[in-house]
Predict the structure of Oxygen tolerance.
Amino acid sequence: MVMQRFNRRAVCLAGLSLLALPTAAMAQADPRVAEGDTRLLVEIEAGSETPFVGEMILVTITGYYDVTITLENFEGIELPNFTWIQLGRDVWSRGRIGGREFVTMERKLALYPQKAGVQRIGPFKHNLTLMEGKSDRFKHQVVSEQIDIEIKPKPKTNGGWWFPAKEVVMTDDWDMDPSRMANGATATRTIRIVAEGQPAEMLPNPPMMTANWLISFIAPEKRSTEITRNGPIGTVEWTWRLRPSNAEPGEIRAFRIPWFDTTSRHMRELVIDSQRVAFAAIEEDEAEENLGADLAGLALPALLGLLVPVAAILPGRRFLPAKLLGSRIARAFPSRDRLALELALWRRDVRAYRRHAGRLIRRSGASHEMLIADLDRSLYGHDGNETTAPNLRTIHRKLVASGALFSFR
């Protein structure tokens, strides 16, 4: 006997006596088993009479047995065009139905159709070893009926992403206020998605939380699946370590993850909010830039002090116009970032070195994305922390050899 139950339309047989039900199909008749002594019923539950591809269908297989069972096993379940998960162990119990005592076995499956069209569920076959009298044992097979169910193709969505679930909950946590971080601090962002009705491997991949102003590292994601009698509950957790690469604030853009609510039959979406990321103060930057400005300011008078006497003793030479002379002098000295970079290298200040190296690489017009990525891996790629001090001089030699640090602007 087959029972089908849907969200809005149910076929309820709970109030009927088991003895009044038609006899379930069996592989073979055995005179030692009376009619009605063994039955295998199947009940399906879905959000619609015509569920979509990838949507969970709950299947409950229930056996009612008024016989003495010594051994039992299900024959290999074959479900073409479905993937499936068994929802825990079989549950055995005793109870009375219509005045008769039955041993009841219940097995639950979560099915996920992989192909549209009319698909067949079952039949399921339960192999029993029964005992008659005190020692006579014989084999008996109970077979359920089969169910044909129509599966609709997954609907078209933006980007082709299809994520059906009963319910989805997302949390987005920061370990500090990312808009007012202490100078040089690294913020940790953790996003967790829990989906009822889908295993963890069906949940989305992490968004690309990157920007040219942002140092971003993502830890290995964590996925887990909890098996319940009402279906699997999948969880995925993503953790990023984030910091701005310079003193200028930036904003991480928002991300949207669409999903299909199998209860309401409507599309919904998870929204990962945009977030401003910035240091609360930039004293360290200003101090370094002021130092560079002071050095350049001292160098200019010194150079003029040397050039003026030399020019005065050269016969037939005229002074260059002040504007042109100033331009040539400016090109002859490194930029403030280059001076601050050398100072950071001398101090072994990893954070300051990364900040000024990033600016110089961008100004050089080189393939800065790759160079900055390599630099970040060397500086911060130690399992998301800085416990292992990088060799700044080795990194510096590589960047100098690439020509990316020679900026005089």
The radius of gyration is 36 Å. The mean pLDDT is 79. Residues 39 and 157 are 44 Å apart (CA to CA). The longest strand covers residues 100-113.
